UniProtKB/TrEMBL annotation:
Belongs to the 4-hydroxybenzoyl-CoA thioesterase family. The keyword Hydrolase applies. It comes from the Bacteria. InterPro entries: 4-hydroxybenzoyl-CoA_TE, HotDog_dom_sf, Tol-Pal_acyl-CoA_thioesterase, YbgC/YbaW. The keyword Lyase does not apply. PANTHER family: 4-HYDROXYBENZOYL-COA THIOESTERASE FAMILY MEMBER, ACYL-COA THIOESTER HYDROLASE YBGC. This is Tol-pal system-associated acyl-CoA thioesterase. It comes from Pontivivens nitratireducens. Pfam families: 4HBT_2. Keywords: Hydrolase. GO terms for molecular function: fatty acyl-CoA hydrolase activity.
Length: 132
């Protein structure tokens, strides 16, 4: 299943040329992942209360075309791979039918002391809905 999140580009997201500043795409991708996880029925607040958090351990991004002020974007999120304590979420940003960015985000689960922790079976089961 592919998860889609709509993002509007605001003035604050752009640089002096009116183009989305490259680092702001990371915020857009984070919103897409957060919405996908929430839609899968995973509460990150409950995870944190149980002593676990998701973290990003690697980002690979290809910027293909610029987004601009007032664009309505779509962030697509899927799940490619799940292992003991980590998973990979391919994401892309679209303006209509035009792909603007391709990314692969490697995420991990950590306990509150900063050590890697295994994905709990319930979270693994809920995330699996996005395996493509």
């Amino acid at each position: 299943m592919v998860h889609n999140t709509q993002i509007r580009v605001y003035y604050e997201d752009t640089d002096m040329g009116g183009v989305v500043y490259y680092a702001n795409y990371l915020k857009f991708l984070e919103r897409g992942r957060s919405d996908a996880v929430r839609e899968a029925g995973i509460s990150q607040l409950e995870m944190r209360d149980a002593g676990l958090v998701f973290v990003v351990r690697r980002v690979e991004a290809d910027y293909l075309r610029p987004a601009r002020f007032e664009d309505l974007l779509r962030v697509q999120t899927t799940l490619e791979d799940m292992r003991g304590a980590r998973f990979t979420m391919p994401q892309s940003v679209w303006r209509g039918d035009e792909k603007l960015l391709d990314a692969r985000i490697d995420c991990a689960v950590m306990d509150m002391s900063g050590r890697a922790a295994r994905l709990p079976a319930e979270i693994r089961r809920k995330l699996a809905v996005f395996m493509g």
